[in-house]
Inverse folding.
């Protein structure tokens, strides 16, 4: 399916052609490598989320146990943040594709 970004128009004897977008990384120089780099970045982001989740859980538990409610609140915030970031990393492709397909339906 192609997306028409510029409808054909006839003004003053000049006809503007349709512009289409068909993303295909297979033919782009370095497309495969860029895809691998993005996967590596996602892997390291998930590792950082796991480490942050563990550290935040420990801070939350210790803060609650010792009565340091500021630390406990910071630990809660860290847990929620790392879970949210991990969700976004996992859903990044689906979210981007969702909005790309919505954009393709605009005429």
């Amino acid at each position: 399916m192609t997306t028409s970004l510029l409808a054909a128009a006839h003004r003053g004897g000049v006809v503007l052609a349709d512009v289409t977008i068909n993303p295909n990384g297979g033919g782009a120089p370095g497309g495969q490598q860029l895809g691998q780099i993005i996967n590596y970045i996602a892997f390291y982001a998930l590792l950082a989320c796991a480490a942050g989740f563990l550290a935040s859980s420990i801070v939350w538990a210790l803060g609650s146990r010792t009565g340091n409610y500021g630390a406990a609140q910071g630990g809660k915030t860290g847990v929620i943040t790392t879970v949210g970031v991990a969700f976004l990393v996992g859903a990044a492709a689906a979210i981007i594709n969702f909005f790309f397909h919505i954009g393709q339906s605009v005429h």
Q: What stands out?
A: The helical segments are 31-66, 69-104. The chain has a mean pLDDT of 87. Residues 32-104 form one domain. The two ends are 12 Å apart (CA to CA).
